[in-house]
Design goal:
Helix content: 40-55%
Largest sheet: 4 strands, mixed
Number of domains: 1
Number of helices: 5
CATH class: Alpha Beta
Distance between the termini: 23 Å
Strand order of the largest sheet: 1-2-4-3
Number of strands: 4
Structural class: alpha/beta
Length: 138
């Protein structure tokens, strides 16, 4: 089940839980997983910075923080996403806001599926997987 929340920002009408439920269920299936409970928490840069400092002891802005509650084959977690970072990244990468938002969401879900992105090779695999999952939307 996908739940959508907004913290310190106004709700965005274009975010549809049914869309994310359908798409992320496909993503999980392709990774031989089952979709569990995922919360998409859309927030501001400042709020996400506070979460980053408080829970991860990191003092920098980021576009997403993923808290993984997955068990067995069920993919579950909380994805905190900075709408400010997504907008800025979309402009810098010359892509639409929705495309960048979907990339960030699926990035978090791929973390829940077990993918990492700390090393260069892990990051390349993550980018490839993101592209593959975004193709499902075409």
């Amino acid at each position: 089940m996908i739940d959508i929340f907004f913290e310190e920002i106004s709700p965005l009408a274009e975010l549809n839980p049914d869309f994310y439920e359908s798409w992320l269920d496909q993503v999980a299936s392709l990774e031989k997983k089952k979709l569990g409970d995922i919360s998409l928490i859309f927030t501001s840069d400042e709020h996400l910075l506070t979460v980053n400092q408080q829970y991860l002891d990191h003092d920098y802005y980021t576009d997403i923080i993923t808290f993984d509650y997955s068990e067995d084959d069920f993919v579950s977690g909380d994805l905190f996403i900075s709408i400010d970072r997504v907008r800025e990244n979309a402009e810098q990468n010359n892509v639409s806001f929705v495309n960048e938002l979907n990339r960030v969401v699926v990035h978090g879900v791929l973390h829940l599926c077990g993918y990492k992105d700390k090393s260069e090779s892990e990051e390349q695999l993550m980018r490839s997987k993101e592209d593959q999952m975004l193709e499902l939307l075409k």
